[in-house]
Amino acid sequence: MNTFDFFLTHVRKRMPLLTVAEAEMMFASFREKRVKKRQLIVQPGFVARSRHLVVKGAFRAYVVDEKGEDRTIQLAIDDWWITDYNSYVFQAPATMFVVALEDSIILELGYEEEQSLKNSSRLVETFFRIKAERWAAFLQRRIIAGLTQSAEERYLDFLEKYPLLVQRMPQYVLASYLGMTTEFLSKIRHHKLKKKS
Amino acid sequence: MNTFDFFLTHVRKRMPLLTVAEAEMMFASFREKRVKKRQLIVQPGFVARSRHLVVKGAFRAYVVDEKGEDRTIQLAIDDWWITDYNSYVFQAPATMFVVALEDSIILELGYEEEQSLKNSSRLVETFFRIKAERWAAFLQRRIIAGLTQSAEERYLDFLEKYPLLVQRMPQYVLASYLGMTTEFLSKIRHHKLKKKS
DNA sequence: CGGATCGTTGATCAACTTCAACGGTCGTGG
DNA sequence: CCACGACCGTTGAAGTTGATCAACGATCCG
Question: For chain B, what is the total number of helices (H) and then of strands (E)?
Answer without folding.
Answer: 9, 8
